[in-house]
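Let's practice the habit of predicting before peeking. Look at the sequence and jot down your guess about where helices and strands might fall. Then scroll down.
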Amino acid sequence: MANEYTVSSGGPLEELVQTVYSRATELAFLPSIYFAQFAQQKKWDARRGDPMPGDQVVFTIYNLLDPVTDPLPDEYSDATRHPVTCVQKSITLQEFGNVVTYTNRLRATAFDNVDLAIARVVGANMAHSVDLIARASYDANTSADYVTYQGGGSALTDITSDDTITADTLRRVYAKLERANVPKYDGGFYIAIMHPDVIFDLRNEGYASNKQTGTWLAPREYCDPEQIYNGEVGAFEGFRIISTTLCRIQSNAGGDSCDVYTSYFLGYQAIGYAEGVKPQLRITGPFDNLGRTLNVGWYALIGFGELRPEALHKVFSASSLA
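Done guessing? Here is the structure:
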């Protein structure tokens, strides 16, 4: 049991206790990442000469060559050379973290395994925090080219409680991503991250209208179980649907004071993730004279940012469950 161990700096059981904490934290952290799992990752590595921590991490995106439809010149003339061009996007590494302090008295008198409980709480907080940090980069671009207001309006106040998402909306967004030649993820699908309330409306559309609006596929029908994303509930109209309650909800933002939900539709390289220090558990202390307290927290040196604006489209809608 973890709460039977004493933690002292350099003590023989210190590593063992940290292992117990780390496992508990990972169990709470890994299955709870929804937005962050689709970011294109680049790690800072001093051995490769990458930027020092705190600097910007640069992503290089290569542009496609224009197609060549004219025949080559005569056999003695050389082909025209064309340069490969690219754009660079920078993401700044920032520090994030949280910490919990508790006492040896609590550890000794609690009826529960406080060590593991706190480790799980810290892990859940790390997952929740990192995913909201990631989501902020999804929410950043509100240009009209990358946003659809359900019901055909041009502002949140144009949305009313009747403007719930439809299969036709997904088909239109899919066409918009394909028109922009946005690369798909493995398996030939784009990704849709949606709130469970919005997914309910999408599933319920066919029942409410008593007509076929599209075909839902269970994950096992189109991918290996080991390749299922966190929160994946199925595929619909060319999108692998991810369900999470962390989708942004703007309370009373609609024209009739309805809640407005954001759904996110993306292709490959929509968002970048720069990692200087991976989100991880930190155990520090004791710092008091009698060694009665212990600090358990998480720390990360990371950043998220937009890479390909055309690869991310957002839909604002109401929900019948709001």
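How did you do? The chain has two domains: 2-66+85-138+272-306, 143-269+309-317.
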